[in-house]
UniProtKB/TrEMBL annotation:
PANTHER family found in the cross-reference section: PHENAZINE BIOSYNTHESIS PROTEIN, PHENAZINE BIOSYNTHESIS-LIKE DOMAIN-CONTAINING PROTEIN
Any single Gene Ontology cellular-component annotation: cytoplasm
NCBIfam families the UniProt entry points to: PhzF_family
Protein name per the record: PhzF family phenazine biosynthesis protein
Swiss-Prot/TrEMBL keywords: Isomerase
UniProt keyword annotation of Isomerase present: yes
Residue positions of the active site: 57
InterPro entries linked to this entry: Phenazine_PhzF-like (IPR003719)
């Protein structure tokens, strides 16, 4: 069923917004541009606009055949999953009057249907967890990080994941981007346990950082897909279904992770709307098959 507000978005000029996700204040967390399209546009034009926006991700929304479709582009390529871009899309849809508080909406993507919901001042997004595969320790990774890695994994998202000891100064880590580009992964997650949290406490269970120069992102400030990927490890390690996490980038971010079924995680966090307006540039129409591939 198409609501009146949804019908209006299909006929109106394209909208664009800037949202900072996993933060309560502007210029913190992870920024994403969100574009509400008036019709299908080619991948080339979406990529060009994402490069122009120069955010770690630009999220593109399209209402087609009664469904909401979502794609994400870094400045250099399209990705199959983006947590903060999904949360930013939910905040933008709420701002534009499409997502009603307390209402759950599915956004259909290359990773399936992603449920989003506004709960009070925050938002929830449901993502697949992905799969971690235990991998042998690698002396080259130890040299890159400047510390012995306790455990190492590869993953279904093409992220390499490294577990550092709790005392390692993760917030101060600086990586050689050229060396990182030589590693066979799309991105590198470096994580560590924090002081044990409690159900009502504020201390995080774990912290991480994420580096992805192959995707045009030297460091991503807060990475929902990385947290979704490692959540099962921390659920099993802590024995709890609700986790608190931090990302120790310069901008920083906080989020909560709730187990949902066998292979799903709900990410919960706050957002800050920085600006919203009309997109005056014209995008090249087309690419409808790419969009129709997202339909359920």
């Amino acid at each position: 069923m198409t609501t009146r507000s949804q019908e209006g978005t299909e006929k109106a000029a394209m909208r664009i917004a800037q949202v900072d996700a996993f933060t309560t204040r502007p210029f913190g967390g992870n920024g994403a541009a969100v574009v509400l399209l008036g019709g299908p546009a080619t991948g080339q034009s979406l990529q060009a606009l994402a490069a122009e926006c120069a955010q770690s991700e630009t999220a593109f929304l399209l209402h087609l055949q009664g469904q909401w479709l979502l794609r994400w582009f870094t400045p250099t390529l399209e990705v199959n999953l983006c947590g903060h871009g999904t949360m930013a899309a939910a905040r933008a849809l709420s701002h534009w009057g499409v997502l009603v508080p307390g209402q759950q909406m599915d956004l259909h993507s290359r990773s399936g249907a992603l449920a989003v919901e506004q709960r009070g001042a925050g938002f929830r997004v449901q993502l697949p967890t992905g799969r971690l595969r235990q991998a042998p320790l690698d002396p080259g990774l130890d040299r890159l990080l400047g510390t012995p890695v306790q455990q190492r994994w590869t993953s279904s998202l093409r992220y390499e994941v490294a577990l550092a000891e709790p005392g390692f100064p993760l917030a101060e880590l600086t990586l050689d981007q050229d060396q990182l580009l030589c590693r066979p992964c799309l991105g590198l997650v470096v994580m560590q346990a924090c002081r044990a949290g409690t159900a009502g406490g504020e201390s995080p269970d774990y912290a991480l950082r994420f580096f992805a120069p192959r995707a045009g992102i030297p460091e991503d400030p807060v990475t929902g897909s990385a947290h979704a990927l490692v959540a099962p490890y921390w659920w099993n390690r802590t024995g709890r279904d609700l986790l608190k996490a931090r990302q120790l980038s310069r901008r920083g971010g906080r989020l909560r992770l709730l187990r949902r079924g066998k292979d799903q995680v709900v990410l919960e966090g706050e957002t800050a709307l920085v600006w919203s307006g009309d997109l005056l540039a014209k995008l090249e129409p087309g690419g409808q098959p790419d969009w129709e591939d997202l339909l359920p």
